[in-house]
Automatic annotation (TrEMBL):
Upper classification of the organism: Eukaryota, Fungi, Dikarya, Basidiomycota, Agaricomycotina
Protein name, as recorded: Alpha/Beta hydrolase protein
Keyword Hydrolase in annotation: yes
Pfam families in the cross-refs: Abhydrolase_6
SUPFAM superfamilies: alpha/beta-Hydrolases
Keyword list, A-Z: Hydrolase
GO molecular function terms noted in the UniProt entry: hydrolase activity
Positions of the AB hydrolase-1 domain: 33-337
Keyword presence, Ligase: no
Length: 346
C-alpha cells in the first residue's frame, strides 16, 4: 500500500494515509485508523491486509507532524505551548476539523457506501489507538461546527468509534499517582528516552485482576518475562519505516499536558453528551483494553467506566482482551480484527 496525501482544507493542510482499496463486492465497511505516539500509520498494515481479505476497506492516517502529513507551523506550535484557553480550544477544534474533513472528503471522493438499512454493511468506522484517540475525539466533539454537508456525511456514514487503549492523559484526565513512563524518567539520558519508550510501551505487563480497579495491583515499570516486547517482532526495516523518534514526534506530550482541559471537554462530549449522540445517531462507541498493556491502559479503562457510572448514559461498550498488550494489532492481528469486528457489531 503506497502512501498518499489528501488536502483537507483551504489552507492546504494535507494528511498522509495508506488505503487497502475498494473491495470487489459492495456495499462494504471502511475503517479509518489513527496511530499513537512514535509509531506511524504503518503499524496497522497487518490488520489492514486481513480486513482487505475479508472485504473491508482500511485507511490508516498519519497525524500532523508525522511522515507525509503537514508539519505544524511555528504559529500553531506557539499556540499549543503558550496560548490562552481560547487559542487552545481553537487549536484542538482545528485539528478535529482537519481529521473530520479528511474522512468526509475521502467518503465523497471514493463514493463510499452508506450504512445499509439493515445495518449489516456499509458505513465507516473510526479506530483511534492510543494518542490517536485524542485526534478522534477532537473530530467527533466538533461535528456541530463543521459545514452542513460534512455534518450530513458523517451522520449518514459513521457507524462506530473504537477507542483503543488511550492513556488518561489522552482524554484530558490526570494520570494515576504511581504512573511511570521512560519519557519522564530523568535518569535515562535525554537522547535515549524515546527509544526506551518504544521498548517499554511495546512490552507485556503482569497486572492483577483489572476488574477490581486496584492501582496497587498494576505493574508500572517491570515488563513480564512471559512474552517479548512487540518491538522484537519487528525487523530493522519495519522499525525504520514505522518508528518516528525525531523532534517532530515530540509534540504529543505538550499536546496532552497543555490541552488537558480541552481534551477532557472533548472526551466528555463524545462519550456522554446527548447532543453529540443526536448528531451521530448511528455511531456505536466501544472502549477496548488489553490485560497486559502498560499500566495506563487499565487506568484509562477505569476512568471511563467510572465517569460513565456517574453520567448514567449507558452509551459506551467495553471490550477487555485477555493477554493483549498495547500492540495487539501487530503481535496478534487476527485477534485484533476479531475484536474490532465485535465492536463494529455487523
Amino acid at each position: 500500500m503506497a502512501s498518499k496525501t489528501l488536502v483537507v482544507n483551504e489552507a492546504g493542510i494535507c494528511l498522509s494515509y495508506i488505503d487497502s482499496g475498494a473491495p470487489s463486492a459492495s456495499p462494504y465497511v471502511t475503517i479509518f485508523a489513527v496511530h499513537g505516539m512514535c509509531f506511524t500509520n504503518l503499524i496497522f498494515k497487518k490488520v489492514a491486509k486481513i480486513f482487505s481479505d475479508k472485504g473491508f476497506r482500511f485507511v490508516a492516517v498519519n497525524r500532523r507532524n508525522f511522515r507525509g502529513s503537514s508539519p505544524y507551523t511555528a504559529e500553531e506550535l506557539a499556540e499549543l505551548n503558550t496560548g490562552n484557553d481560547e487559542q487552545k480550544h481553537d487549536w484542538l477544534r482545528s485539528r478535529g476539523h482537519e481529521f473530520a474533513n479528511f474522512i468526509a472528503k475521502f467518503i465523497q471522493l471514493n463514493s463510499l457506501p452508506q450504512i445499509t438499512p439493515d445495518n449489516r454493511s456499509g458505513g465507516s468506522v473510526i479506530l483511534g489507538w492510543s494518542a490517536g484517540v485524542s485526534l478522534s475525539i477532537a473530530a467527533l466533539s466538533n461535528v456541530e461546527s463543521l459545514s452542513k454537508d460534512v455534518q450530513d456525511c458523517l451522520s449518514a456514514h459513521l457507524r462506530a468509534f473504537i477507542a483503543q487503549e488511550p492513556a488518561p492523559l489522552a482524554l484530558g484526565l490526570p494520570s494515576p499517582t504511581k504512573n511511570w513512563a521512560p519519557l519522564r524518567e530523568t535518569s535515562i539520558p535525554e537522547g535515549l528516552r524515546f527509544k526506551a519508550f518504544a521498548h517499554w510501551i511495546t512490552s507485556y505487563f503482569d497486572h492483577g485482576d483489572i476488574s477490581k480497579q486496584d492501582f496497587d495491583s498494576l505493574s508500572y515499570v517491570l515488563a513480564s518475562p512471559l512474552r517479548p516486547p512487540s518491538i522484537y517482532n519487528m525487523s530493522t526495516a519495519e522499525t525504520d519505516e514505522m518508528l518516528q523518534l525525531d523532534q517532530k514526534s515530540t509534540t504529543d506530550l505538550p499536546f496532552f499536558i497543555n490541552l488537558a482541559n480541552q481534551l477532557k471537554a472533548a472526551y466528555r462530549k463524545v462519550f456522554f453528551d446527548s447532543a453529540t449522540a443526536e448528531l451521530l445517531p448511528k455511531m456505536r462507541i466501544t472502549f477496548v483494553a488489553g490485560t497486559m498493556g502498560p499500566a495506563f491502559s487499565p487506568a484509562g479503562l477505569w476512568a471511563v467506566e467510572n465517569d460513565e457510572k456517574e453520567a448514567k448514559t449507558g452509551r459506551v461498550n467495553y471490550k477487555v482482551v485477555p493477554g493483549a498488550n498495547h500492540f495487539v494489532h501487530w503481535d496478534d492481528p487476527e485477534k485484533a480484527v476479531e475484536v474490532y469486528l465485535e465492536c463494529i457489531d455487523l
